[in-house]
Amino acid sequence: MSATLNRFGESKTPGKTAGVSPLDGIFSPKSVAVVGVTNTPGTVPFDIFYNILSAGYRGTVYPVAPGKRSIAAVKAYRYVVDIEDDVDLAVIVFPADVVDRALQQCGQKGIRAVIVISAGFREVGPEGAKREERLKNICADYGISLIGPNCLGAINTDPKVQLNASFARKMPLAGRIAFLSQSGALCTAVLDYARDKQIGFSKFVSFGNKAGVTEVELIEYLHQDTSTDAILLYLEEIREGRRLIDAARRVTHGPGAKPILAIKSGRTIQGAAAAASHTGSLAGEDAVCDEIFREAGILRVTSIEELFNAAILYAYQPMPAGERLGIVTNAGGPGVMATDAAIREGLLVPRLEESTRAKLKATLPATANTKNPVDVIGDARADRYMAALEAVLDDPNVDQGLVILTPQSMTDIEAIARGVCQIARGATKPIACSFMGATDVAPGIHLLQSANIPHYILPEWGCAAMAAVQEIRRWRQQPLDHPEPLPVDQAAARAVIDRAEEGYLSEDQALAVLSAYGLPVPANHVARTANEAVAAADRIGYPVVLRVVSPGIVHKSEVKGVVLNVGDASAVRRAYDEILSRVAAAAPEAEVRGVLVRRMIPAGHEVILGAKRDPAFGPVLMFGLGGVFVELLKDVTFGLAPIGPASATRMIEHVKAFRLLQGARGGEPADVAGIRDCLRRVGQLVSDFERIAELDVNPLIAGPSRIGNTVADVRIRLGAGGNGESE
Length: 727
Hints:
It is built from 24 helices and 29 strands. By secondary structure, it is of the alpha/beta class.
């Protein structure tokens, strides 16, 4: 996929980003110094210098090699400060223990862009971390944009630049896709994979330890890059999740939007064993990452194959108007498999118009199938394939086409490939192909890939790529909302939180905080005697619930500290005494502050509203089916707090249990608008108070609109003291 034109109907030619960026020195330098070069071929220092020369770099390159007169017949310099002319970019390949001195000299020379290839920093332990910190301080002092350390380097295929400042084996083909990776080793494998499939790149960057420039600055730069249509990202860690998500929303939505497709490695739940709340145990790194990436428009994939399968379809084919797929095949079995895969991926395989079928019947043999998928029969040659593909693409019920070919003795593979290429040049709908096999179909695949027509070994892979592009299309069509603060009594909540110690709030304190933020908290009172409990129940109205109040008891039912549906005064006295007796037996060390009396809540759907403070993303919200089902079914979604109405709606609608809230099997619909309001208020609460480490409203009883929703139980865990209100 080496051509640099796409078919969006837009003029896109190779070039730099609009305006002046600190990263221009990395991607479009007029001069480069390679600092620490040796004369030994096959070593990283020599190979980087040689790659810059052999790739046809359009600027001037200076080798800095103490004790050497020349490197590869190019005059060498003892120190970078000895170079007579200005230098835009330095690539440092010295051993780790002297990199700081080389970087210091770069600053003195006025070089404002540096790539540190050398390893031996944070990744090797405390001493390496100290060395990396010194690099950060030098960059801050001199205003240097730093890529690395511990990285492969950077590549720009723009013909005006032609920079291969890396130790990759070969310069990649030019293309419309940018690739950013935290792993240098992965980069070399990706470049080899892409060359085999003729996939080209606009920019290719290994950013290593991220001591300076991070993925955030890189995707913002590529958003403005006229050479780039799609951004691919490989991450091993997320340090500044909020910045990444904010940048991704700007890049993937609105004018000039570009998709971001990402692999985030480490798909494991970390820290769940130490989390006491449902939210804390379910909101592992991977689960949160999936949902939050989706809310930022980042399409998360699981493999390199999946990453490029979607990227080449997006970057080199028109955006489809919808999810309807037309299939043309010369074998019935693969056509059926593709149909099944398409439907499984959420695509539609529509019925063709009668006029389309009439066209097909006029050009195909009587034994051909003119329904979708269209089977042109095993002996089909190029003319039959072209007639069928043109008719299917012209059908108003079809948004995109998939061409399947199995190699048979009479199949002219190259002629069919050339025919598909000819149709694709004038098509306004995307086309993908699956020439199934390996050796026999290889020449045809080469023709397709050279013409920027995505090819997939299996039709199912093509369907998955089309489904991924549909996600990009739908994301751009949905609204982005900006959370507006709701009216709350922040002072009342602060009065509770600021006075509380680290650990769990008592139930009455937690309810008071929720009430201050406008959540539907039932009338309640903490009674310290049986008489107080009766008076409270008389005032609130029967039936009531009695619950032990103890900061040391998180799960009240486990110590039999709850009595439900208490219907009169005598039952209240009896329940009060029973609770104190049971708790004393089950948890004799617990401090009991009384018994909370509140009205019995009418039956409804049990949902959970949760929150936790994620180390990368900050306050994160959770929503799902509540009660005992939350851990069992794990039917939950996540979002960043604070949250706007559109994002809250998407969180609610994304859970499988949403059908229950809509009123499945004739049931009365729940107050979904009220749930959305509660979710937004919880999001505002955890955003306003940094001390809130975990929060569970579980369950919130979701009743019909005529009744509304009610908080049935809540747990709030606070971190260490400090100013309760966040800045």
